[in-house]
Amino acid sequence: EVFCHRDYLDIPVPDADVNFSDDAEIAKIVSDWTAPYAATDEMHDEAAWAQIAEGERLAARGIEVGHIFHFGDKYSKPMKASVTGPDGKDHFVSMGSYGIGPTRLVAAIIEASHDENGIIWPESVTPFDIGLINMKPGDAECDRICAEVEAAYEKAGVSVLYDDTDQRAGAKFATMDLIGIPWQVIVGPRGAAAGEVEVKRRATGERHNKSVAELIAGAVAG
User: Fold this and answer.
1) At what angle do helices 140-155 and 212-221 cross, to 10 degrees?
2) Cα 20 to chain centroid, rounded
3) Alpha carbon distance 41, 59 (integer Å)
4) CATH code where residue 141 lies
5) Residue 71 belongs to what domain range?
6) 202 and 142: one domain?
7) Given Cys at both, which of 44, 75, 153, 214 links 158, Cβ 3.0 to 4.6 Å?
8) How many domains does one find in the chain?
9) In terms of DSSP H, where are the helices of the chain?
10) Dihedral pair phi/psi, residue 28, rounded to 5°
11) Exposure class string for 193-205: b at 16+ Cβ within 10 A, else e
């Protein structure tokens, strides 16, 4: 079980532009994430918890997907591992470790992002970017459009999972929803004849038609 101040859930996650060489920037991130109370049941402090207003407390089940340990000089002293500091004196190295559990992380993402139809992968961690569904494999126009779309996306560095299985429409849709790829591009004979495909956003179920030329141009433009 995890206990924390509700403010903890509103802390912005650092983006990819963080400058890890900037001590002040890193210190602020550490301060932001360590200021609100947060602890698992193993480290829970009832006295600190009691100081938080009842309406601001949050206790819930959680999944540990990573950890950080600070060892200080527990191991560096026995190993006599030291460095010379700016003061000219030897100081024992302060040690630490961190770890991430990839398999736990996958399970945690799925538990946090799914619906009754299956997984909803966040775009930042999805195994594929696009689920391309050929509604009628063997149809010359459907096959041609799917090949063009797949090639355009992959040339742009967008990963595609191509479903050209000989299954009924309902089974294809159910399978792609279950896998949970963020965007689906659906190519059927009727749309292909009109030079259009259907685009579906997995998270909302929203669908709209788009011309093949527009879709490919968007893929090339990134």
Assistant:
1) 20
2) 21
3) 10
4) 3.40.50.800
5) 65-112
6) yes
7) 153
8) 3
9) 23-34, 46-50, 76-79, 102-112, 140-155, 169-179, 189-193, 212-221
10) -65, -40
11) eeebbbbbebeee
Identify whether residues 21 and 91 lie together within a single domain: no
Whether residue 154 sits in one domain with residue 199: yes
Stretches in the chain below the pLDDT threshold 70: 220-222
pLDDT of 221 reads 60
Query: Does residue 125 sit within a domain?
Result: no
Please name the helix (run of DSSP H) or strand (run of DSSP E) that holds residue 68, with its range, or none. strand 66-72
Give domain status of residue 36, yes or no: yes
Sign of CA dihedral 36, 41, 45, 48: positive
Q: How far is CA 78 from the centre of its chain?
A: 41
Using left for φ > 0, alpha for ψ between -120 and 50, and beta otherwise, residue 115 falls in beta
50 shares a domain with 19:
yes
Of 169, 178, 221, 166, give the one whose Cα is nearest residue 198. 169
pTM: 0.72
3-state secondary structure of 116: coil
Looking at the structure, tell me whether residues 149 and 176 fall in a common domain.
yes
Of 167, 149, 145, which is closest to residue 158 (Cα–Cα)?
A: 149
Same domain, 216 and 140: yes
Quote the pLDDT of residue 222: 57
Residue with tokens 């775009």: 123
Structure confidence at residue 159 (pLDDT): 96
pLDDT value at residue 62: 86
Residues 45, 11 share a domain: yes
Distance, CA of 56 to CA of 5 (rounded, Å): 6
